[in-house]
Design brief:
Helices cover 42% and strands 10% of the residues. By secondary structure, the protein is α+β, with helices and mostly antiparallel strands.
Length: 704
């Protein structure tokens, strides 16, 4: 009897061993399917079946089945066979389980949230993105590994599932592992974070019997140009500049004659409801005569492409002109100068951005530049400052005085409508301005300690003072700067405090230029130290929230609030994200001017790291030419990928900007390559008798 039991156990062990050795994986998909390809490349023995029924019939005891084709769901009889054969099955959307088909919904702000710590290197409540896919709104399941819901957070669901509906996304039903959406498209559709998705797929592979670690193709459709620790050479700078400048034409954001009608149809006031597909491949890029669109929206399509923000902003026109004219001489591409000149002509003469009340000397808004062609009556001081700096830089690059009068009128238009202490407030609407006059506005006792909106105008006052010695320009700038520094660090902030520090570098550097004193140098160093204490060795500056209650676009406070307003890229200090739309781009410009003004290596050492970082994280996207060579707003320098909280309602982590981001980064590259700074470079064109005569005329016209 004992011998019979012994023989039975040996036979049983042999059966288990043979079944484990002979267990196969059957894939219901084409051989060219990306999941099938990666398994074959990794040496996994896989078989193929045309549909789920054939896979079940051909499967041996204990085999694994991965169903990746559409609309496959097992019948009751097939479920019985699955159970008897002990088959290990993964079934992905748009398959469904149950007697009724659940409702479907398209992903907008929803993300995947883990409901377990069982999957390697992912904690419960970890967040994964699913871009532009539909998902089933499944009813609750007993064993759910992940849900899909609209939740707030950078790396984890900060508020859990509070206040939102959630639907099972990865769960077990009848012994089958089910995904509520097509997740096999994750690389092409740029799901993130990448390591999380690799871990989730490894869990799927283990479930169907694949114990070997599967290595995915690292040549992603959209990725940083270089690795984190790559050395950066002058040749890398030149290649990055060439690719970045060429992006302006490859992106087809320059409006052309044959599709100008689309701008009229698709643009809207306030930049809301302006997200539409980019023009198709058959369309040509314009040459600047009809302006340039804002950039790409922070939305990733099913195929990994991105739609465009169909909006013509004033700042983007001048900033793009600055970038292209800067690249023109370095790359020896005179056509870039042609586009730059056309953009300035569009800005100041063809469009409505400097027309109407803005071009009437009797108007209090004379000289101001409109926010956008749909909102020419809105005047942001910050936007006006970048328009004017871009116009100055482009004019100096092209050695032209064509735009001098607009530059002078723009600076004085903002200067004379600032209050006694040099502050203007965030913005004006023309209707309100027309009810008063500039002299009344200039006597206001307003104090707005908010460098994002105010400080680059102070820099312009100092720049113009240097050319004219008109003392009130310096006095207003000094007064505003002194008040701001007296409040340090209790400043208002926009999407984070780092951008306020970054913006403040420029006026402080130029204050040293016009009055080099220990106090002014100390102010500059004080702000730089506050900002650069978060400078990573890679060249990224970690984002930081400001003092609670002083933020205009503060931390997202609930799941309901997520995606409803402008917002920071992070949830809390420590999230390893840097911002190339609001912080790092402007920091580079300010640090370059700070180093030139002081010759202090502290600024140059930080600047070199940041400029090298720009080279490393430029977007490499050979399959998406309209993205190839750009920079996205956000970069996770811990993971070394494009990732952050996508809470911002208009300008999230994957947004591009022809002005704010692309222009200032390109100019950072040019400054590094040519060893130049803005203050000294523009002197040759503007520190002239002609310019002073033009200023005198405008002073008499606008300040009397």
């Amino acid at each position: 009897m004992k011998n019979n039991k012994k023989h039975f156990l040996i036979i049983l062990l042999l059966v288990v061993f043979v079944s484990s050795v002979s267990a196969r994986v059957i894939i219901v998909a084409d051989r060219q399917h990306p999941v099938a390809e990666v398994l074959i490349k990794c040496g996994i023995d896989v078989r193929f079946a045309d549909n789920l029924s054939k896979a079940i019939r051909s499967a041996a005891y204990g085999d694994g089945i991965i169903v990746l084709q559409n609309r496959h769901a097992p019948s009751a009889g097939e479920l019985d066979i699955l159970s008897r054969k002990r088959l290990k099955v993964f079934l992905q959307y748009p398959s469904f389980i149950g007697n009724t088909v659940p409702d479907e919904q398209k992903v907008t702000l929803e993300r995947v949230v883990m409901n377990t710590s069982y999957i390697r290197d992912m904690d419960s409540l970890a967040i994964l993105s699913v871009n532009d896919h539909s998902f089933y709104k499944y009813s609750p399941k007993k064993l759910t590994y992940a849900y899909i819901a609209k939740i707030a957070g950078f790396d984890k669901a900060e508020y859990g599932f509070e206040g939102v509906d959630r639907y099972p996304f990865l769960f077990i039903e009848n012994g089958i592992l089910v995904a509520g959406a097509d997740i096999s498209n994750w690389q092409r559709a740029r799901f993130g974070p990448q390591e999380y998705w690799k871990n989730l797929w490894q869990f799927v592979f283990h479930y169907v019997g694949i114990s070997k670690t599967v290595l995915w193709n690292t040549d992603k459709s959209v990725q940083p140009a270089l690795n984190k620790n790559s050395s950066v050479t002058r040749e890398d700078y030149l290649n990055t500049l060439q690719l970045g400048a060429g992006w302006y034409t490859r992106s087809k954001l320059l409006v052309a004659d044959n599709w100008q009608h689309l701008v009229t149809e698709q643009t809207r006031k306030n930049g809301e409801g302006v997200i539409f597909p980019a023009v198709n491949d058959s369309m040509k890029a314009g040459d600047g005569r009809l302006g340039i669109l804002e950039g790409h929206a922070s939305f990733i399509n099913h195929d990994g492409s991105q739609p465009v923000r169909w909006w013509l902003r004033g700042d983007c026109q001048a900033e793009t002109a600055f970038a292209l004219s800067s690249a023109a001489s370095v790359l020896k591409k005179p056509y870039y100068d042609t586009i730059a000149q056309n953009l300035l002509r569009y800005l100041y003469q063809t469009s409505n951005l400097r027309q109407g009340e803005r071009n009437d000397p009797a108007s209090p808004s004379f000289g101001l530049i409109g926010w956008a062609t749909t909102d020419p009556d809105a005047y942001y001081g910050d936007d006006n400052a970048r328009v004017l700096l871009g116009s100055i830089g482009a004019s100096a690059n092209m050695k032209t005085s064509d735009w001098n009068s607009f530059i002078i009128e723009g600076i004085l238009g903002n200067f004379r409508t600032a209050g006694r202490n040099g502050f203007r407030g965030p913005w004006f609407r023309d209707a309100a301005m027309q009810k008063t006059d500039w002299k009344i506005l200039s006597k206001r006792e307003i104090v707005n300690v908010h460098p994002h909106y105010e400080s680059w105008l102070w820099a312009l006052y100092l720049w113009l003072y240097d050319k004219t010695q008109y003392e009130p320009l310096k006095d207003k700038a000094k007064e505003a700067i002194a008040i701001t520094m007296a409040h340090f660090p209790e400043w208002k902030w926009t999407n984070g405090i780092q951008q306020e520090y970054a913006r403040m570098l420029l006026p402080l550097a130029w204050l040293v230029r016009v009055e080099d004193s220990p106090q002014h140098r100390n102010w500059l160093k004080m702000v730089a130290l506050a900002l650069l204490k978060d400078l990573d060795e890679s060249g990224a500056i970690k984002e930081r929230l400001g003092i609670s209650g002083l933020g205009r676009y503060d931390k997202i406070r609930s799941n309901i609030e997520y995606g409803t307003k402008e917002a920071p890229l992070i949830s809390e200090y420590g999230d390893q994200v840097t911002d190339l739309l609001y912080t790092l781009n402007f920091c580079s410009f300010g640090l370059n001017e700070a180093y030139a003004a002081t010759n202090d290596d502290y600024y140059e050492n930080a600047l070199k790291k940041i400029d090298d970082f720009f080279v490393r994280v430029q977007v490499k996207a050979p399959n998406h030419q309209d993205l190839d060579g750009t920079w996205f707003r956000a970069f996770d320098f811990g993971r070394w990928e494009y990732w952050a909280s996508n809470a911002d309602s208009g300008w999230g982590p994957w947004g591009t900007q022809t002005g704010w981001t692309q222009s200032w980064i390109i100019n950072a590259l040019v400054s590094r390559i040519t060893n130049r700074n803005f203050w000294e470079f523009t002197k040759a064109s503007f520190d002239t008798e002609l310019f002073r005569q033009q200023c005198a005329q405008s002073f008499n016209l606008m300040l009397k």
